[in-house]
Specification:
Elements (H helix, E strand, L loop, with lengths): L14 H4 L1 H20 L4 H15 L2 H13 L4 H6 L11 H14 L4 H12 L4 H24 L8
Helix pairs in contact: 2-8, 3-4, 3-6, 3-8, 6-7, 6-8
């Protein structure tokens, strides 16, 4: 979305198109992570909650749009999606979901050592080590996609 007078160095580069090999590798990682999440007993709604919460924190409009649609297709409710940004102040998320969201937030801000350690301790109360690993991988992967989309300036257009 650049005007003709805008300098070419000011225009964003869709890095997924400019360098397709790394992007394809990231898609492969995403498929492996989704399979790992399924193998440890997580349904698609939990994965999408993590994707959405991380995308909220990172301010990635493209991923928010994409994963909201995916969550709704997976059976997520509009109430839970609407309050996700304030999930701690609700009673609508299960202990497993709350542990996953806490881990996802800690993964998105890893420099906060105390929060990271507290999130892991809390998660161990309701999740197995395999589940903790799966949640962290989901968060790591969506963080990467958030960077691709925000740095590329992927547009969000009105739905038809």
């Amino acid at each position: 979305m650049s005007s003709p007078e805008q300098k070419s160095e000011d225009r964003r580069i869709f890095i997924d198109k400019q360098s397709p090999e790394p992007y394809q590798a990231l898609l492969g990682v995403s498929e492996a992570v989704r399979a790992t999440a399924t193998a440890v007993g997580f349904d698609r709604t939990l994965v999408e909650l993590v994707n959405l919460r991380v995308s909220q924190i990172n301010g990635c409009a493209y991923c928010l749009s994409l994963h909201t649609r995916a969550a709704l297709r997976a059976g997520e409710t509009t109430q839970r999606l609407g309050v996700l940004a304030a999930w701690r102040d609700t009673e609508v998320f299960t202990p497993v979901e709350r542990a996953a969201l806490t881990l996802a937030e800690a993964t998105t801000a890893p420099a906060d050592t105390a929060a990271r350690e507290a999130a892991t301790r809390a998660a161990r109360e309701v999740l197995t080590d395999d589940q903790i690993s799966a949640v962290i991988w989901v968060a790591v992967t969506i963080n990467a996609f958030n960077r691709v989309s925000t740095m590329s300036g992927h547009p969000v257009r009105p739905e038809r």
